[in-house]
């Protein structure tokens, strides 16, 4: 009884207090884990891209990019407002995490879930969403914006308000401009749902649904204005962001292995979070004549099952560490709401809360504390070193990486040695490295011709876009009059093999991970 009275008292608290607490939780967790360890390629990718845009260097035009441009421009905005440092970098991730958590709370409350339970589930979503990496990353932005799309699209279906239809389209576009999937898949499944809903709506209600297309058109106008104002050729965008990635997707799809582990075991907790919805699905399915709200709930549950399939397929296709575990509390919150609405079984509600606690403990420890998403393997984070030793702009960052997790100070000494050598070199130079903070800390004015260098972002010799890529890179090198390329990491040299074929490069090994390549003879 006392517990019930306490919940009743808490439910009387103004939602503004809960919103404030949610923002605090989402921000603190992101900052705590955003300052705790780095995985060089993933952690620094958007840092470098934001720094480039801030200095007037734009994706698709000045550097080859197969990942979403939205993060590059958002990060440049945070750098512009809060200066170029690690704080403003993590602040970007914390802002997106807070936005997600606040909107999840708003979503639950709009559907009728109690304040305390809405606060619980939305807080849990924020704990598992961005803290797993702690810094801006295209996969996280794309998934989070897709969840926000689901929120507004669902509210549009239930309320038919213009604003919700408009915002759902806007965030679907944001998701696509962060990464091509899952937004492309959501676009495919959304169109028939809209037409089905439009066909069943009254004539006066159909006008509001049109605001979904207004949102798409608005997004397109914003994108085109940014592209034209910065001289970004649309054919470059289409080649780099649409057509070339399709060739990667085709290769990945053909190599997928749909075994039990891939399809089920690694996602089993997400499957379990949907189990109560399956029960409600059959309850509603058995009803031959569904009332207005029941029909919308039935459509909503079917839509949720489709979103689940899209998220699972996207995660499998990307072949990255799993980042969608924050969907567990998201789906559990909806399950709790619908169980209370249609089944009213206290035991099931208790089981849902218990499952929430178990899953939160498991994935918080694995992905936040132990940094599994960033490939740390039982690292001792007490060995981490303050990154201000590298540059004052990284003060507070606890530097430790998976490769040198047993001796981070050794890695820092290597980076500082590299930094000092590059600073002393007055030639026109570019830096090819996973340590993409080097252009900033060496004040290198030239820029690498690719957002990042790995087998996905660089077309293979057999790929039909290889010549397009090679011509783009050569034009970039000639325009900047590059004399020397600095490589950090042996595996980076192979991405310039079209130059190596000319036998015009003078290589020099500087230390165990640092090479220089004089390419002046390659222009003859």
What would you say this structure looks like, in words?
The structure is a single chain. It is built from 20 helices and 6 strands. It is mainly alpha-helical and about 525 residues long. It folds into 2 domains: about 375 residues, no CATH class; about 120 residues, no CATH class. The longest helix is centred in the middle third of the chain and has 27 residues. The protein is globular, with a radius of gyration of 25 Å.
Specify Rg, calculated over alpha carbons. Answer: 25 Å
Structural class: mainly alpha
Total of domains: 2
Structure annotation, total helices:
20
How many strands? Answer: 6
Most strands sheet: 4 strands, mixed
Spatial separation of the terminal alpha carbons: 85 Å
Q: What is the H/E string? A: HHHHHHHHHHHHHHHHEEHEHHEHEE
Tell me the strand percentage band: under 5%
**Which shape, going by the Cα principal axes?**
globular
Mean pLDDT rating: 92
Order of strands in the sheet with most strands: 3-4-6-5
As a percent range, the share of helical residues equals 55-70%
Q: Would you identify the regions where 5 or more consecutive residues have pLDDT less than 50?
A: none
At a glance:
This protein is mainly α and 524 residues long. Helices cover 63% and strands 5% of the residues. A 4-stranded mixed sheet has the order 3-4-6-5, covered by helices on one side. A two-stranded antiparallel ribbon has the order 1-2.
Short key terms for the protein model shown above:
two-stranded antiparallel ribbon, 63% helix, mainly alpha, four-stranded mixed β-sheet, 524 residues, globular
């Amino acid at each position: 009884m006392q517990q019930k009275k306490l919940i009743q008292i808490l439910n009387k608290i103004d939602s503004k207090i809960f919103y404030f607490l949610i923002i605090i939780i989402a921000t603190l967790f992101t900052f705590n884990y955003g300052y705790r360890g780095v995985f060089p390629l993933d952690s620094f990718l958007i840092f470098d891209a934001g720094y480039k845009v801030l200095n007037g260097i734009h994706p698709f035009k000045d550097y080859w990019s197969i990942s979403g441009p939205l993060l590059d421009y958002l990060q440049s905005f945070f750098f512009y407002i809060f200066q170029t440092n690690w704080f403003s970098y993590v602040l970007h991730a914390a802002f997106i995490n807070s936005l997600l958590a606040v909107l999840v709370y708003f979503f639950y409350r709009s559907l009728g879930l109690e304040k305390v339970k809405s606060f619980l589930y939305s807080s849990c979503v924020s704990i598992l969403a961005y803290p797993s990496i702690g810094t801006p990353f295209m996969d996280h932005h794309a998934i989070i914006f897709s969840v926000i799309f689901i929120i507004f699209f669902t509210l549009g279906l239930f309320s038919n308000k213009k604003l919700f239809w408009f915002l759902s389209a806007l965030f679907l576009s944001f998701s696509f401009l962060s990464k091509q999937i899952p937004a492309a898949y959501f676009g495919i499944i959304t169109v028939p749902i809209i037409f089905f809903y439009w066909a069943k709506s009254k004539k006066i209600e159909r006008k509001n649904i049109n605001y979904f297309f207004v949102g798409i058109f608005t997004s397109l106008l914003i994108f085109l204005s940014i592209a034209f104002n910065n001289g970004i050729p649309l054919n470059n965008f289409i080649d780099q962001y649409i057509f070339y990635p399709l060739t990667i997707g085709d290769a990945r799809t053909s190599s997928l292995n749909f075994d039990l582990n891939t399809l089920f075991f690694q996602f089993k907790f997400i499957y379990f979070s949907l189990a109560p919805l399956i029960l409600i699905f059959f309850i509603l399915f058995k009803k031959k004549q569904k009332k207005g709200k029941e029909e919308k709930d039935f459509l909503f549950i079917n839509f949720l099952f489709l979103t689940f399939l899209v998220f699972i397929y996207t995660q499998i296709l990307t072949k990255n560490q799993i980042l969608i575990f924050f969907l567990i509390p998201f789906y559990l919150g909806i399950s709790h709401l619908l169980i209370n609405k249609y089944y009213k079984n206290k035991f099931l509600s208790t089981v849902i809360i218990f499952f929430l606690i178990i899953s939160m403990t498991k994935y918080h420890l694995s992905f936040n504390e132990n940094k599994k998403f960033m490939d740390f393997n039982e690292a001792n984070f007490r060995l981490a070193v303050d990154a201000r030793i590298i540059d004052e702009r990284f003060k507070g960052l606890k530097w430790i990486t998976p490769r040198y997790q047993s001796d981070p100070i050794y890695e820092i000494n290597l980076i500082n040695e590299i930094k000092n050598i590059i600073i002393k070199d007055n030639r026109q130079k570019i830096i090819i490295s996973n340590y993409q903070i080097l252009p900033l800390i060496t004040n290198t004015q030239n820029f690498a011709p690719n957002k990042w260098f790995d087998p996905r972002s660089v077309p293979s010799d057999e790929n039909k876009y290889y010549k397009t890529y090679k011509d783009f890179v050569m034009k970039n090198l000639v325009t900047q009059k590059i004399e020397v390329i600095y490589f950090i990491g042996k595996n980076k040299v192979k991405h310039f093999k079209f130059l190596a074929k000319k036998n015009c490069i003078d290589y020099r090994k500087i230390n165990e991970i640092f090479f220089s390549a004089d390419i002046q003879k390659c222009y003859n």
